[in-house]
Every structure is written in structure tokens, then in C-alpha cells.
Design goal:
heterodimer, A: alpha/beta, Rossmann fold, globular, B: 195 residues, alpha/beta, Pyruvate-ferredoxin Oxidoreductase, domain 3, 6-stranded mixed beta sheet, 23% strand
Chain lengths: 598, 195
């Protein structure tokens, strides 16, 4: 009997990799991709493959590429912006090619829900000239992963699997398959592994030819499917296919539908068949008009005067995430069907509930201490990517810039060159420090940049689900005896002022903040305290109603979700972990630490 | 047949686990399922929803606006915020306990409990509202609020699995050491609706 499991899309991808005989996995976490690798890490011992959290995406891809050179099947996973970091190896790896199947899982985040942009990995893949598979469901994500390894070996190219949030974080009853035998491995020395200008030209020609080979393979792929019903056609790619099918159902209309699961390159056979079968075509895809542009080019190449709608005539939105409600409107417009208007009920004003730092988050204490010590000197706080980006939320409002991983320190350096009288303080997390922050710090030392780097060291990669990193005593699958101390590294690269502080000790934190504001040259303060989600607290704080004068200082300056107004005083809720930062700033000493009972 | 359930709450309330439990219960009786969850930045005290779809055919995991058969509201204001997901004749099981966001605590927005409460009563025909957090505390921990709401859901007529099957799925997914209090929470959640 076939076995089914409730799997999240990312877990299904991991399962697919295991079924394909995976030998090496490497990744850097990033929403919505993280669970692909964390699932693989937890099964590494059982299925006996190698798995590592790499320091960044470039490193992860290169490790996987090395394994593939020797014939191993390797997978590497990241979020869409992670591919930018891995762009350098990617662009040339496409020329060099691979031996063992190499699958890049690059999760896109239209919306975006948890990202700094909405870049479309399919565009990136076209730039690199690599094939892309675009799963609509977790089941398809699993099936495509297995297929991607085979395709990669057939073409000698890395293959990109590009799920979006609504595949990554969707669960489905997924049918489990058998596990295939492993590839034999040996790296065979050959000049073709060494990229060189003359080789690059030859390989570029080969790479262009492989586009057509891939197109021919995709012409026969089960992931592309044409269902002819009438003379009106829809092409739908990835999760947009789900929305199209459900919209047709809801609107009670029929159409000829071509589902595209391989958007790069789009297979020409089913598209040419569609041109014959219908009079007009609507193309529905998320993000950029990747399929649409290729279909238009096919019509032009085959001298077919096709009537094509989609992004270029403004019918399908190009920004944000698609969903059933948006696609239903697009289809209703295209088919010119009336839609019953939903009776809108006026909703009373709702409280704003944006994501914020958790109760007792050590980052809150760090931001607070630096605000007190440095904001009066008009200091600029450059931020980075992680939970601490939430430091931008009022009342903390302690993040002035955020661009990409590791940019806090380098943006501060750039600002400091222009604003010589002003202090520029960069904030980044421990995992981000190793990812790309360290290069910026070395650059600051080398160029004697007058900046402060505050490392918010919460002993984990918190935002993406608490992955380890080189500063911790563990790896993805075991123990790390040679963990790297951030303060020691900072001293070793020549930073003159390095201090380690517990952010819960506000006096010490304020003192360090005050010292670095006056320090000339690059300085590092490591604010070291575990993320509240990885340690269990036995303490909480409590307000003494007799003493509390209801000044709201704690409420209005910290913005801790455990603090709530009660009558004219303050109450501390069950989410409190007893960080005591509010107790330390209370002007009348009305907050004390007690044992937690729940 | 199909059943669409939207779960609305605040990050950290266990909406993801609740949706997995419902999906697993449906799978265990041989039905197809899809869930979609809020994972990532919004989980940090932000507004979150989970969608559970059971039946055949199933397409995307996101339930259309005004399309949910059931709204499981884990928090008062969040229930009102996501009420537009519920069908006109849909059922709502709602925790009336409030989680006051920092924006309210620091005076940047308001939490008008009476208006929100009234809005629910005026606009939901099949409303079951109770303080699930208090019931959870009675069961042994406020952290079992999600299980209280699952208990409430288990009373729904026409559910494609029995209350026992839902409880079994919950017990399989909940860590062993807190199973007892969750079992109690489930039972108390049932009673909150049945009374």
C-alpha cells in the first residue's frame, strides 16, 4: 500500500532528496527555505549523508558543487536573496557543469512575507541559463526534487527548484516513494574543471545548446499538462495553477488550461498546441512575466498572431503575492463574467499588531542601552537582517538603515567617511557576523573606519528557526569543538576596542555604549545573551501595585509585549521571562523578580 | 465534500500546531488535506493565520475570502480582523481573551473590547465565544489555549472525524509530558461549547 505523510512543502523537498539518493546537503537558513535543510539535517544520520549549515550561501553552493564534481548527488537550499550571495559560483558553474546531480532549492517569497525584496529566481536562472522547476504543491515539490537530480545529471547542469512561500509552508498528504541507490564517487582530474577564458567561450556555446536540449526534455515532462476544453486558453505556472483551477470552479466557467511546471525554458510543443487550440490566451504566473515573455517570443518565432494577455497588458499584477481572490478577479475580467459583490461590513478600529521583539528579548535591552548612551550624541544606528530588524518598531525605533545581510557594518563605514563628526553604530547578529559581517569588519579595520559594531550575540540564528553557526558548540548534525569566539576574532583582526557585555546588565551595557561613543577607530561590543526561545526561564517580574506610580515609563520606552496597562498601573503578563530590564529602569523600584509558577 | 477552516491568532499561540492536528486527524480518516501557515517574521507577536482545507478536489491552500466554513479565533481582535474569511453561515469558535499589543500599551493604537465583542455578536450567526485562556489555565497551563479551541471545534456537527479522532491526532503531535493537561484542556473546551 502506498504510504502517505503530512508533510510541509520544505519537508517534502527534503524527502525527495533522500529518495533520490542524496549524498551531500549544504545550506544557509532563510525564510521560506529553512525547513528544507533542517529536515535534511535531522535525517542525516539515519540515511547516512553529509549535511552542513554553511556560513553563507556562496559557501554552501561551492561545497555542494565540489561534492558534485566527484559524482555525488548534492542539494543546496537558500532563500531568493541568498542566491545573490551565491551568484559568483553559480554563473560560472553553469559553464563548468556538474557530474553528480546538483539541485539548488531557491525559495521565492512574493508578498513579501519575510524578505527585503520580491526578486524572481526564474529571472536569475535565465541569466545563469539554468533550468527551473516550479512546484505547485508539496507533492509536486517532492516529485520534482527526485526528477531534478536526474535532469541535472542528464544535462550536466545544476537545476533550480523554485518553490514559493505557498509551497514551502503548505502541508499536504504526500505519497512517499522508494530510496534509490547512491552514485559511485571519484573526482576525475581533467582540464575541463578549470575555467579559463578559452574554455569559457567553448562552454558558453555548449550552455546555449543545452537550453534547447532542456526544452526538448521538458516537451515530454509530466509537469507540463495541456487540457483542451474550448477556444479560450489559460497558461498557469507554479502555485498560480491552483488559483486558476479554483477560480474556474468558483466562477463556473471552463477553459483550456496549460499547466507549466518547467518555466525555464518553457517547452514549445504544448505552447504551439495551445496556439492551435485557442483564440486567445491568459497567462497567470506570480512575480515577473517569465513564462509570458517566452510564450510571446514563441508566437513571434513561429509567426503566429496570438492574442496574449497577462502582465504586459496589466491584467495580472506584477507585485505582491497572487491568491485565489486576486486571480478570481483577473479571470472574471478576462472572461467578462459578473461577480456578485461581497456585502462589506464595516469593521470597528482594530489594534495594530505588527511583529515585534519577544518579551525579554536581549536585543531590546541592547538597543535600549545604546539609545540612552548614543542617541543624545545624534548617533546613526545601521541595522541588518535578523530578528533585530524589528528594533525599528516603536517605541524602540533603533534602526535607521537596513539593506542586506552584513550591510550594517559597511553602510556605517560609508556613512562615517562622509559624516566625520557623527558616530555610526552598526548592529548585527551572531550568525550574520559570520555570514558576511566579518568581511565588513576587516574592511573597517583595514581602512580605519570610525565605526562601532554591536554584535547582538543571542547564541543562535533566531529568526529562521534557531539554526547553529560557527560561534556555537554545535554543527547541523553534531558537536563543534572549535567554535569561534566573536570577541577573539575581532581582537585578532586588529579591532582596538573589544568588549563583551550581558545586555540584561543595563549598567554595564550603558557604560560600554558610552565608552565606544567616545572611542576613535573601529570598536566592537559583543552583547552576549541567549535568545529567550532557546532557554527556559524560571523567573518572571512582578509589579508592586503599592509602589507603582503609573508613570508608564516601562511601557513607553521598552515596548515589551509582557507589559500591559492595567487601570492606571502596569501589569506583567505570563510571557515575561524575568530579564529585569523594566525593573532596572523603573524610577520607583516597583518591579521585582519572582519565581515563575506556570 | 469539503471543509475549510481558518485559524486566526497571535504569533506564539500555537496556531501552527492546531492546524497540523486538524490536518492529521483528517488524513487519518483517509481525506486529502492542505494547510498553510504563517512562519517567519510575523510569528514574533504579530497577527497570524493558518488555513486548513479538507476534501476533494483541493487546489491552493489559501481559503478564499468569505469562504471558510469555520473560523477558530484564538484572540478577540484577531478574530474580528480575519472575520472576512468566514462564510455568512459559517461557525466561529472564539477565545474572548485579549492579548494587548505593544502598540496599545504604548498608546499608539486602541483596543476597544466592547466594540469588537459587539461586532462579533452582530455579525456571526453561529458564534461560540468563551474565555479559552482561563479554561486553559484551569486545565493546567495557559499554553493549552489551542487545545481548548480544538476541543470546542470537536463539537461541530458534520465534522469529518470524531472528537476522539481529533484528540488522538492531538495526543500524537503534542509532547508526552504535557499530554495530560492537554487532554483536560480538550475536554474543557468541549464542555465550554456544549453548555
Amino acid at each position: 500500500m502506498e504510504q502517505k505523510m503530512l508533510l510541509m512543502g520544505n519537508e517534502a523537498i527534503a524527502r525527495g532528496a533522500v529518495e533520490a539518493g542524496l549524498q551531500v546537503a549544504a545550506a544557509y537558513p532563510g525564510t521560506p527555505s529553512s525547513e528544507v535543510f533542517s529536515t535534511l539535517a535531522s535525517f542525516a544520520k539515519e540515511y547516512d549523508y553529509y549535511a552542513e549549515w554553511s556560513v553563507n550561501e556562496k559557501v554552501a553552493l561551492e561545497v555542494a558543487a565540489g561534492a558534485s564534481y566527484a559524482g555525488a548527488r548534492a542539494i543546496v537550499s537558500m532563500k531568493q536573496v541568498g542566491l545573490n550571495v551565491a551568484a559568483d559560483p553559480l554563473m560560472t558553474l553553469a559553464y563548468i557543469g556538474v557530474k553528480g546531480g546538483l539541485v539548488l532549492v531557491v525559495a521565492d517569497d512574493p508578498g513579501p512575507h519575510s524578505s527585503q525584496n520580491e526578486q524572481d529566481t526564474r529571472k536569475f536562472a535565465q541569466f545563469a541559463k539554468l533550468p527551473v522547476l516550479d512546484p505547485a504543491t508539496p507533492q509536486e515539490a517532492k516529485d520534482m526534487t527526485v526528477y531534478a537530480f536526474e535532469l541535472s545529471e542528464k544535462l550536466g547542469l545544476p537545476v533550480i527548484l523554485r518553490p514559493t512561500t505557498r509551497t514551502c509552508h503548505v502541508c499536504q498528504d504526500v505519497t512517499i516513494g522508494d530510496i534509490r541507490p547512491r552514485n559511485k564517487t571519484k573526482f576525475e582530474q581533467d582540464p575541463s574543471w578549470v575555467i579559463f577564458p578559452s574554455l569559457a567561450y567553448r562552454r558558453h556555446k555548449w550552455l546555449n545548446e543545452q537550453q534547447e536540449t532542456a526544452r526538448q526534455i521538458f516537451n515530454e515532462s509530466p509537469f507540463n499538462n495541456l487540457t483542451v476544453k474550448n477556444r479560450t486558453g489559460i497558461i498557469a505556472s507554479g502555485v498560480a495553477y491552483n488559483y486558476v483551477m479554483e477560480s474556474l470552479d468558483i466562477l463556473g466557467i471552463e477553459a483550456t488550461v496549460l499547466k507549466i511546471g518547467t518555466p525555464c525554458p518553457v517547452p514549445d510543443k504544448p505552447v504551439l498546441n495551445l496556439f492551435e487550440a485557442v483564440d486567445r490566451i491568459l497567462i497567470v504566473e506570480e512575480q515577473e512575466p517569465v513564462v509570458e515573455d517566452q510564450v510571446i517570443a514563441m508566437a513571434w518565432k513561429n509567426k503566429i498572431p496570438a492574442n496574449i494577455s497577462g502582465k504586459h497588458d496589466g491584467l495580472v499584477p506584477r507585485e505582491g503575492e497572487l491568491n485565489i481572490d486576486k486571480v478570481k478577479v483577473v479571470l472574471a475580467d478576462f472572461f467578462e463574467v459578473e461577480q456578485p459583490a461581497d456585502s462589506a461590513v464595516e469593521t470597528p478600529p482594530l489594534p495594530e499588531r505588527a511583529p515585534i521583539l519577544c518579551a525579554g528579548c536581549p536585543h531590546r535591552a541592547s538597543f535600549f542601552a545604546f539609545k540612552e548612551a548614543a542617541r543624545k550624541h545624534d548617533a546613526v544606528f545601521t541595522g541588518d537582517i535578523g530578528c533585530y530588524t524589528l528594533g525599528v518598531m516603536p517605541p524602540l525605533a533603533a534602526v535607521d538603515t537596513c539593506l542586506c545581510m552584513g550591510a550594517s557594518v559597511t553602510i556605517a563605514s560609508g556613512l562615517s567617511v562622509v559624516e566625520k563628526e557623527r558616530k555610526h553604530i552598526a548592529f548585527l547578529g551572531d550568525s550574520t557576523f559570520f555570514h558576511t559581517g566579518l568581511a565588513g569588519l576587516i574592511n573597517a579595520v583595514y581602512n580605519n573606519s570610525n565605526i562601532v559594531l554591536v554584535v547582538l550575540d543571542n547564541r543562535t540564528t533566531a529568526m529562521t528557526g534557531h539554526q547553529p553557526h560557527p560561534g556555537l558548540e554545535k554543527t547541523a548534525t553534531g558537536v563543534n569543538e572549535k567554535y569561534i569566539d566573536i570577541a577573539e576574532v575581532s581582537r585578532a583582526v586588529g579591532v582596538g576596542y573589544v568588549k563583551e557585555v550581558d545586555p540584561y546588565d543595563l549598567d554595564a551595557a550603558r557604560q560600554a555604549a558610552a565608552e565606544v561613543v567616545d572611542y576613535k577607530g573601529p570598536a566592537v561590543v559583543v552583547m552576549k545573551r541567549e535568545c529567550i526561545a532557546i532557554v527556559k526561564s524560571s523567573k518572571k517580574c512582578e509589579v508592586d501595585d503599592e509602589k507603582c506610580i503609573g508613570c508608564s515609563k516601562c511601557l513607553k520606552t521598552l515596548g515589551c509585549p509582557a507589559l500591559t496597562p492595567a487601570e492606571d498601573k502596569v501589569e506583567i503578563g505570563s510571557s515575561c521571562v524575568g530579564c529585569t530590564v523594566c525593573a532596572q529602569i523603573c524610577p520607583v523600584d516597583a518591579i521585582r523578580e519572582v519565581e515563575k509558577w506556570d | 465534500m469539503g471543509l475549510d477552516i481558518v485559524i486566526a491568532g497571535v504569533g506564539g499561540q500555537g496556531t501552527v500546531l492546531a492546524s497540523r492536528i486538524i490536518a492529521q486527524a483528517a488524513m487519518d480518516v483517509g481525506l486529502n488535506v492542505r494547510t498553510s501557515e504563517t512562519i517567519g517574521m510575523a510569528q514574533r507577536e504579530g497577527t497570524v493565520t493558518s488555513h486548513v482545507r479538507i476534501g476533494d478536489p483541493l487546489y491552493g491552500a489559501i481559503i478564499p475570502d468569505h469562504g471558510a466554513d469555520v473560523l477558530l479565533g484564538f484572540e478577540l481582535a484577531e478574530t474580528v480582523r480575519w472575520l472576512y474569511k468566514l462564510k455568512q453561515e459559517g461557525l466561529a469558535y472564539v477565545n474572548t481573551a485579549r492579548i494587548i499589543p505593544v502598540s496599545v500599551a504604548s498608546g499608539r493604537s486602541v483596543y476597544n473590547t466592547d466594540a469588537l465583542d459587539q461586532h462579533l455578536r452582530n455579525n456571526v450567526k453561529n458564534l461560540f465565544a468563551f474565555d479559552a485562556m482561563e479554561i486553559a489555565a484551569e486545565a493546567g497551563s495557559y499554553r493549552t489555549t489551542n487545545t481548548v479551541l480544538l476541543g470546542a471545534l470537536s463539537t461541530m456537527p458534520g465534522l469529518p472525524f470524531s472528537a476522539q479522532q481529533l484528540l488522538d491526532a492531538a495526543m500524537n503531535l503534542i509532547p508526552a509530558k504535557v499530554r495530560d493537561i492537554n487532554q483536560k484542556a480538550f475536554e474543557l473546551g468541549r464542555r465550554a461549547v456544549e453548555v
